[in-house]
């Protein structure tokens, strides 16, 4: 079974609008969940992670994510998107090795 | 810190040739990972080292692929002989520990003709 799933291949939003990128995880053990972003022709950059503790995790570039155990979700959010947020976003689960979702392409239009 | 360093950044070779990809992890990190990214399969873990010892190589496609980590500051991924289906972006990542945040290098874009 897939460790994490990203149900949307693409997300399109207007600059200034809220941005949400969805991720769900499989129910087994205590999940260590991560979000990474990949800009064109670049490596993956770490955004944030949930290990334990507060369900609302704040990360880089104004992003945050909420760990929801009842819905087995870990959606990435940003209150006000920027054109520069356009990139490929990956959710991942770390069970000593990272299992990545398929990725969601975010396009923020000016 | 310079981050994870990979070389070369781009490699174009002909089928049958040997390809060697190199990685220098972040100093102090004791876990190193090699990943491959393709459009069809997404991001896949190839092999994982802890304290220079290969722990899990179940993701290595076949015997043509081999990886070494002779010391804490250097690792190689070798493909011999290379095939067109090996064309992909290969990433190296390192972390303080196996469940800690992994930091990725810029990747090596490999094209096998």
The proportion of strand residues of chain A reads over 45%
Judging from the principal axes of the Cα atoms, what is the shape of chain A? Answer: globular
Q: Span between N and C termini of chain B?
A: 36 Å
Helix content, binned percent of chain A: under 10%
**Shape type of chain B:** globular
Ranges of chain B where pLDDT stays below 50 over 5 or more residues in a row are none
Query: Helix amount of chain B, in percent?
Result: under 10%
Gyration radius over CA of chain A: 13 Å
What's the total number of strands of chain A? 12
Query: Would you tell me the structural class of the helices and strands of chain A?
Result: mainly beta
Count of runs of 4 or more consecutive helical residues of chain B: 0
What low-confidence regions of chain A span 5 or more consecutive residues with pLDDT below 50? none
Structural class of chain B: mainly beta
Radius of gyration of chain B: 13 Å
User: How many extended strands of chain B?
Assistant: 11
Give the mean pLDDT of chain A: 92
Strand composition percent of chain B: over 45%
Most extensive interface, residues per chain?
Answer: A-B, 19 and 20 residues
Write a concise synopsis of the structure shown:
The complex is a heterodimer of chains A (110) and B (113). Chain A is built from no helices and 12 strands.
Account of the protein in words:
- The complex is a heterodimer of chains A (110) and B (113).
- Chain A contains no helices and twelve strands.
- Chain A is mostly beta strands and 110 residues long.
- The mean pLDDT of chain A is 92.
- In chain B, 0% of the residues lie in helices and 55% in strands.
- Chain B has no helices and eleven strands.
- In chain B, strands 2, 4, 5, 6, 9, 10 and 11 form a seven-stranded mixed beta sheet that branches.
- In chain B, 36% of the residues are buried.
- The model of chain B has no long low-confidence stretch (mean pLDDT 94).
- The interface between A and B is medium-sized, with 19 and 20 residues.
